[in-house]
Design a protein that fits this description.
By secondary structure, this protein is of the alpha+beta class. The protein folds into 4 domains: 159 residues, no CATH class; 71 residues, Roll (SH3 type barrels), CATH 2.30.30; 128 residues, no CATH class; 192 residues, 3-Layer(aba) Sandwich (Rossmann fold), CATH 3.40.50.410. It contains 19 helices and 22 strands. The strands form 5 sheets. Strands 8, 11, 12, 13, 20, 21 and 22 form a 7-stranded antiparallel beta sheet that branches. A 6-stranded mixed beta sheet has the order 16-15-14-17-18-19, sandwiched between helices. β11 and β12 form a beta hairpin. The protein is globular.
Length: 661
């Protein structure tokens, strides 16, 4: 508590922790380097654009062409000029006054903030529609029969008939999922507005641009004819990895899990299916309790478990320890992290990790936590790796005091995007019979899913909705199976984002507004993410040393979050004052269609929080800073827009907004 009170105690380092360089044009005193143009109505925010594919620079408006720029290059605008009926922009890579030439405005996209959108997996929802005009979208959203209207529009598009020139929709989301790591795209937000559905639910309307690495992407209004789309599912491979607690109380459950695995392999082998199990065991800190022997241990790699005999042979030495851990909670996050990082997922199109434990996880700020991550951060890491998480929680009598906390955390852990419920399965009183049913349900669900794929079939949304009343694992396998199938088919068919357009859409499923069609992300380079991580750590460390007051600590965080959404190149610079003290916070936050958690909290709310509430946010920030390091070091995430040979630090990735401050 003393540390937290000091964290929220003096302001000495406030001016040196986070630097957000203020444009010379804003002060109009020291000429200095030439500054980019300011956004209309802003005093410090510069005009920025993204380059479209094949965009070129010129020595002057209408002059000689120069270099072709990498697609999606983020540029500052230094001048605007009309020549030959075309608008031209003078651009530079930075805000330091150095320009690189002129570009046609039509070959750029306005970049008012670094927010962009990404399609969620379309399983369990309808495909997003993109309208020519805002009013057409608003009219449909606010109509009593919006679902029927949207259905008719989709049916016209899917029918493939010639669409009239005044057809209100100019594009539709592809039917299979786009793997942004393989078919990189951006949907920058150009403008935002609101509409109210007939039941008074508020939804956002967003004007977006479609931007891909290719000059022309797919045109979903004229879809390619693909015969037997689901046929390729016959080659789908499923990998299921158990992450099991092997502390003192777990031996009976380990025996039942082995038996369930044996039955699974029998079914798989009889049906000739392509699925494999793996297993990771975990305990807790061996530094505190050396007798535990290990923190995590990979017993079986699914790629090596070609049959049931091999899998079970690898588990001959799997047993619960006889040594008690230092606390009832265990380091289950370490076990999950090992399953994500140490399992070789290569070759597996579907990836499922199932946690089995009778204890809640160590908190991210627990000194014995080996990862420093919380359940939300490990879930985000799993989502990036396209891994679905399930949790079987044994609510045994010795853990009675831990049950409520563990349930809350494991529910958060297993809440997938647009799933009707968390993939969390409590086993009351640790019943062995109930646990066996869950294990059998998992085996049956995996087998049923693979049989369907082997037949070139996928469960349809109507069938899923009929099963949503049940939370049994075998039925949940069908839910995540549909998502895995759409992701796999999208990868096999190299599904791309729709070709270049500017249009209006909504981030919610028109039929079910609680489902998200487009999630918000922030486009950062590796260097910018590294700067953000270092900035957050400096702010937290300064607070812990008692060098920041309550207001100073919070203002520094908000300044970092605001700069990240507007211009992340400013994060990490030193020598300037805080946005809040300069009266500029509103300028950075005004007209942002989305705000991160920190930007959604105001100074008054922060000051009324208890020490425990403030500390909880600080713990979350520390866990996020560790996650940034993992993102930064994951080479599979980053896209080099300029192609091979570019500066690795300039590689980009759209980080989920929820993962940022």
């Amino acid at each position: 508590m003393t540390i937290v009170r000091r964290m929220v105690a003096a302001t000495a380092l406030a001016a040196t922790v986070l630097a957000l360089t203020i444009a010379p044009a804003a002060t109009q005193q020291n000429p200095g380097p030439r500054a980019p143009l300011l956004m209309e109505g802003k005093k410090t925010l510069f005009q920025r654009v993204l380059s479209r594919p094949e965009a070129k620079t010129f020595d002057k408006p209408g002059g000689s062409a120069g270099n072709v720029l990498p697609p999606m290059s983020a540029l500052y605008v230094y001048g605007r000029e009309m020549a030959g009926g075309t608008e031209w922009l003078e651009v530079g890579a930075g805000s330091d006054g150095k320009t690189m030439g002129w570009m046609r405005a039509e070959e750029t996209v306005p970049w008012r903030q670094t927010l962009t959108l990404a399609f969620t997996n379309p399983a369990g929802r309808e495909r997003a529609l993109f309208f020519r005009e805002r009013d057409k979208l608003q009219g449909m959203l606010e109509a009593n029969d919006r679902v029927e209207q949207a259905k008719k529009l989709r049916e016209r598009i899917i029918a493939g008939s010639n669409l009239p020139a005044d057809f209100p929709v100019i594009s539709i989301e592809p039917s299979t999922h786009i793997d942004i790591a393989k078919q990189f795209y951006l949907l920058p937000i150009l403008a935002a507005d609101e509409a109210y559905l007939s039941n008074n639910v508020k939804v956002r309307m967003l004007k977006v641009a479609s931007l891909t690495l290719q000059k022309e992407g797919d045109d979903p209004l004229k879809p390619k004819v693909r015969q037997n789309l689901y046929d390729s599912l016959k080659n789908f491979r499923l990998g299921v990895v158990f992450v099991v607690d092997t502390t003192t109380s777990m031996q009976p459950y380990l025996d039942r899990a082995k038996e369930a695995a044996r039955r699974f392999y029998e079914q798989v082998e009889r049906a000739g299916l392509k699925a494999s199990y793996g297993l990771v065991a975990f305990r807790s800190s061996t530094t505190v309790t050396p007798g535990l022997e290990y923190l995590t241990k990979v017993y079986v790699q699914p790629k090596d478990a070609v049959d049931g005999k091999t899998f079970l042979d690898r588990l001959k030495d799997l047993k619960a320890t006889t040594v008690s851990s230092h606390a009832f909670t265990e380091d289950s996050i370490a076990g999950l992290k090992a399953a994500i990082d140490e399992i070789d997922w290569t070759g597996f199109d579907g990836r499922v990790v199932i946690l089995i434990t009778d204890a809640g996880p160590l908190q991210s700020n627990d000194p014995t936590s080996s990862t420093g991550l919380d359940v939300n951060r490990i879930r985000e890491l799993a989502e990036v790796r396209k891994i679905h998480l399930m949790a079987v929680h044994l609510r045994t009598a010795p853990g009675k005091r831990d049950h409520e906390s563990a349930e809350h955390q494991y529910t958060d852990l297993t809440e997938g995007k647009n799933l009707p419920h968390a993939l969390y399965y409590p086993v009351e009183a640790g019943s062995l019979a109930e646990f066996s049913k869950n294990m059998e349900g998992i085996a049956e669900g995996a087998t049923q899913l693979m049989r369907m794929f082997a037949a070139g079939q996928v469960q349809q949304q109507q069938q899923q909705q009929q099963q949503q009343q049940s939370r049994k694992p075998q039925r949940d396998f069908q839910l995540i199976g549909h998502a895995m199938a759409l992701a796999y088919l999208g990868s096999q068919n190299q599904t791309q984002a729709p070709r270049m357009f500017e249009a209006w859409t909504t981030d919610r499923d028109i039929n079910t507004p609680t489902s998200t069609a487009l999630e918000v992300r922030v486009l950062l380079t590796k260097n910018q993410l590294s700067d953000l991580q270092q900035t957050i750590r400096r702010i937290i460390d300064a607070g812990k040393r008692g060098q920041l007051s309550p207001a100073g600590f919070f203002d520094e965080l908000r300044s970092a979050a605001a700069a990240m959404s507007r211009d992340p190149s400013r994060i990490g610079r030193r020598g300037t004052e805080k946005l809040g003290e300069l009266g500029l916070m509103g300028e950075y936050l005004d007209d942002l269609p989305y705000r991160s958690k920190i930007m959604g909290i105001d100074q008054i709310t922060w000051s009324t929080w208890s020490i425990a509430e403030q500390q909880a946010l600080i713990n979350e920030l520390e866990a996020k800073a560790r996650l940034y390091e993992r993102f930064h070091n994951d080479s599979a995430l980053w896209v080099q827009l300029g192609g091979p040979g570019g500066n690795p630090g300039d590689a980009v990735y759209p980080i989920p907004l929820d993962a940022l401050p």
